[in-house]
Design a protein that fits this description.
Length: about 230
């Protein structure tokens, strides 16, 4: 049976978690606590020598990186609804998955490290330069999602849910829920899209995947971290 190694504080881990629950591919979840350094242990390095999650073990076939994992599982299990056979539709999906790494994911990750990870580990004061960069990249990314990816379609460059939406939605939720940044008020198309993704995969699955990151948001409030406005 497929083993999926995840930490639900990780955006791409949550995308894989939601994907597996939604598609009902037989699997077991192996939790790897990044905050405890479990990704550096010898046992996990046998699964993924790059020290990152998510990763999978599919009957001895080992694979890391969320995008190829999702593509591989869609291809293996013929889940064409989330990763179509049509080459042009696939290209649109893949365009977003490539773009988001150095845009949406980059901006959100900078902010999460500066406003949660570092303060939680006692590293103060807040790195204001990193925060300013993160806000700049995040705002530009959200604007492009509204103006380009959601310009004519309810999902990202598509009329139906795809793996691009799972990845993108988890990135937005990282800052919206994990940091308490009010993304959905300022970006109405993004707000409508996020709710559509949530409804499409099932609210219980979506909310369960984000229950852990919600605790991060509560800790940010408790630490009284100055979260910037968008």
């Amino acid at each position: 049976m497929l083993k999926a190694y995840v930490d639900l504080i990780s955006q791409p881990s949550r995308a894989l978690y939601i994907f597996l629950k939604f598609t009902q591919i037989p699997h077991t979840i192996q939790h790897v606590a990044l905050r405890k350094g479990e990704h550096n242990k010898a046992e996990f390095l046998k699964i993924n020598p790059f020290h990152t999650v998510p990763a999978i073990d599919d009957g001895g076939f080992l694979l890391s990186e969320s995008v190829p994992i999702l593509q591989y599982l869609c291809n293996k299990h013929n889940i064409h609804s989330l990763y179509p056979k049509d080459l042009q539709q696939r290209a649109k999906i893949e365009a977003f998955t490539h773009w988001q790494h150095l845009n949406l994911r980059y901006g959100g990750s900078i902010l999460f490290v500066a406003l949660f990870s570092q303060p939680a580990s006692g590293k103060m004061p807040i790195d204001e330069k990193s925060v300013q960069l993160g806000v700049k990249v995040l705002k530009a990314s959200l604007e492009r999602i509204e103006q380009i990816y959601l310009k004519e379609t309810p999902f990202l460059s598509s009329d139906s849910l795809s793996i691009a939406d799972l990845l993108g939605a988890c990135e937005v939720m990282q800052v919206h829920v994990g940091l308490g940044m009010d993304v959905l008020t300022h970006y109405p198309k993004v707000a409508k899209w996020i709710e559509l993704v949530r409804e499409s995969v099932g609210a219980s699955i979506f909310d369960d995947a984000h229950s852990f990151i919600l605790k991060a948001g509560e800790k940010v409030k408790m630490m009284e971290v100055p979260v910037p406005k968008l």
